[in-house]
Automatic annotation (TrEMBL), chains A, B:
Protein name from the UniProt record: 3-dehydroquinate synthase
Signal peptide (UniProt feature, chain positions): none
Statement: the UniProt record of this protein carries the keyword Lyase: yes
Pathway membership, UniProt: Metabolic intermediate biosynthesis; chorismate biosynthesis; chorismate from D-erythrose 4-phosphate and phosphoenolpyruvate: step 2/7
Primary residence: cytoplasm
Protein's cellular compartments: Cytoplasm
Organism: Spiribacter insolitus
Length: 364, 364
């Protein structure tokens, strides 16, 4: 299978790292051992993924001091409290600064494990082994780690780059359909925010992706990782353009927090959020109604929500959006579209148009 | 008073920052405002320090959105749980990534506030205003932040440099005697680990320091900060020589953790730890008994413990020391003395000599 592997480099000087993409990577002992050389290894996974892939990973790692912790599945586990038993296990087992943390799971596990690695003994090495499409194309790459606070998503965390990302496309075979669609939301995001050519490709390949055709998935994961790697390399700490990756997220995070984490999946919430961004952009006259409809239709074809929950309302939305990390001096900043494939971060939008968008009002 | 100010620079490229040392700095609105330009400011202090100095700091800051949190005093507060109400307060008040955190207190407050700043929204700016001698000469400088875990000291944390350190020597006037002596432990540490000339000076000025003579305190704070700044600039993330700053700390942290945080002060525990390091070094034949006695006598003259708690025992000591962050591959590494003013990090010591030292056995 070696011929079918793809390698994307995240160029960050002495913190550069490879993203390995291919089928059967979890069985590739040489790759796993090269990526995880430490003698003490803490694997953080969840109760859904561990029964499927933990044994294979352990086999590939071979003789080591391996400790594994499996958290319950779900966004509600992504909190400070979930980190305590992991720290405890590492200390009980005498893990030193030269240990490695391995995240085996989706975005929740990757973000939490990364934050454990960022803060255990002031920082240890870690490796991401994403098992969902969403984690492969987005959350496992770029070093954003953290947990949620009841008052806002990802409010506590750190920038901490992994040593490597290993995306084994074969594990997508066991991914539930709803999770696959949620991951496609982040895929569409890359197209809308800055890759018009990819948008054209997606229009013709949504069905192939949802049918899990290997070539389509491989192309998607590589394309998204290349997009993300370029943006992260240019702006690691989000001083500027990295914020574009937040297209749909200001609205989406508010939906997630307001509904209680785990009700809407992250990808579902940002799908609705991207449609809202497209609608507000159209109301501003920055994109045409036809362009707006093209974006919304694509998201609808994936099987994702295209409008916010009807009972949320503009006031509650604003309350949660006021905590967004992009805000400066209390001013709400949004990622909007100047064109399809051309996003901007801006506070220059019409307040009444925003309110209408938050209320989910039609504008035909 | 301006003529009597001292400025030490911590040279870390684009993360370089000044340490301002002098009397009355808390009343210097220009300095405070230059160091804390943010419009949203979270001041973290404790219930002992806040009543004395919080009002002055707020006056100097002037018109801002200022929120202050006062934790109970003591090492037992330095834990993850204490951070939660701080995060909550910041989120309730809509603090963005452009806010600043100010630590107004001793080492516990500085370490915890720094870790809050390191992790709130993945990192915000912070300023250290140390109010104890220990914090001025050691913990406020260098960017080590973090909290304790029941199983070990400073086990959860991050490297996060402050924007500035403001050491107002006048606040040492209200420092309890026991705290002043504890701070002197870190002062003696710099002399023993690498500054023989300072050791000679200290021999002649211990009494002046304990009497809080302004010139002696100013000299001490500046000298220690210069020592620490040089070491941190050369080795920010403790890949090598920065570990020398841990002289006495491997033993000391074990004493603190074993006795429960807050029983022995940190400075008291590392005072005993430094005497143990000197004893083991003498047992190894690396320093003479006369040199050992000189170090132990100096620590005794400060009024600090010169031997470990008698009831701890080698076995419990080793249990806690096994979690030390300097360990590699499970091997216990210690900071010992090759000479007075010449420390090394080494795993090359005699096990029986270590056991005798842990048991507090005499060796005359």
């Amino acid at each position: 299978m070696k011929h079918d592997r793809r390698l994307v480099e995240v160029a960050l000087g002495n913190r550069s790292y490879p993203i390995h993409i291919g089928r059967g990577l979890l069985q590739d002992a040489a790759l796993i051992r090269e990526s995880v050389p430490a003698r003490q290894v803490m694997i953080i996974s969840n109760e859904t993924v561990a029964p499927l892939y933990l044994a294979a990973l352990k086999t590939a790692l071979g003789e080591r001091r391996i400790t594994a912790v499996s958290l319950p599945d779900g966004e509600q586990e992504k909190c400070l409290e979930s980190m305590l038993p992991v720290f405890d296990e590492m200390l009980v087992n005498g893990f030193g600064r030269d240990c490695q943390v391995v995240a085996l799971g989706g975005g929740v596990i990757g973000d939490l494990a990364g934050f454990v690695a960022a803060t255990y003994q002031r920082g240890v090495n870690f490796v991401q082994i994403p098992t969902t499409l969403l984690a492969m194309v987005d959350s496992s790459v770029g070093g954003k780690t953290g947990v949620n606070h009841p008052r806002g998503k990802n409010m506590i965390g750190a920038f901490h780059q992994p040593r490597a990302v290993i995306a084994d496309l074969e594990v997508l075979g066991t991914l539930p359909d709803r999770e696959l669609r949620a991951g496609m939301a982040e895929v569409v995001k890359y197209a809308l925010l800055g890759d018009r050519e990819f948008l054209d490709w997606l229009d013709g390949h949504v069905d192939a992706a949802l049918a899990r055709e290997p070539d389509a998935l491989a192309f998607i994961v590589e394309r998204c990782c290349r997009n993300k790697a370029a943006i992260v390399a240019a702006d690691e700490r989000e001083a500027g353009q990295r914020a574009l990756l937040n297209l749909g997220h200001t609205f989406g995070h508010a939906i997630e927090a307001a509904r209680g984490y785990g009700d809407w999946l992250h990808g579902e919430a940002i799908a609705a959020g991207m449609c809202m961004a497209a609608c507000l952009s159209a109301r501003q006259g920055w994109i045409s109604r036809e362009e707006r409809d093209r974006a919304v239709d694509l998201i609808g074809r994936v099987g994702l929500p295209t409008s916010p929950p009807t009972d949320l309302g503009a006031e509650r939305f604003r309350e949660f959006m006021a905590r967004d990390k992009k805000n400066r001096d209390g001013e709400l900043r949004l990622v909007l579209l100047r064109g399809l494939g051309d996003a901007v971060v801006t506070a220059d939008y019409d307040e009444a148009a925003l309110t209408a968008t938050l209320e989910g009002e039609a504008d035909d």
